[in-house]
Task: structure prediction
Amino acid sequence: MIKKIEHIGIAVKDLGKSEILFEKLLGAEMYKREVVESEGVITSFFKIADQKIELLCASNEDSSIKKFIENRKEGIHHIALHVDSIEKEVKRLEKLGFEFISTTPKKGADNKRIVFLHPKTTNGVLVELCEEI
Ligand code: ZN
Result:
């Protein structure tokens, strides 16, 4: 079951500058910075009530965030949906014809297991499913 929009991910070039910008915009302080080695990203999290914004910055040359910014510039990178069970949702969505970048959950930032749907089956939007560990 999809419970809510957990966060919106935004790809940025300069994490320090963007943290200051989003602190001003939201009137809230960044509460967590976390490196996700497997994805080649450094993330920063902001919270408004129980909704979050995740800033994503490339941590190496092969990072998908670096490629994303080269191709599409900075901006909204993905929408993350909070699910109670990734395995159940993967099964449900595959039955409906959705495709995944990988159906094997990875460890994401902020204590989550995550998978991504392929944007070609979601109107060009990269959708992340995340489950609390
Ligand atoms: Zn995310």
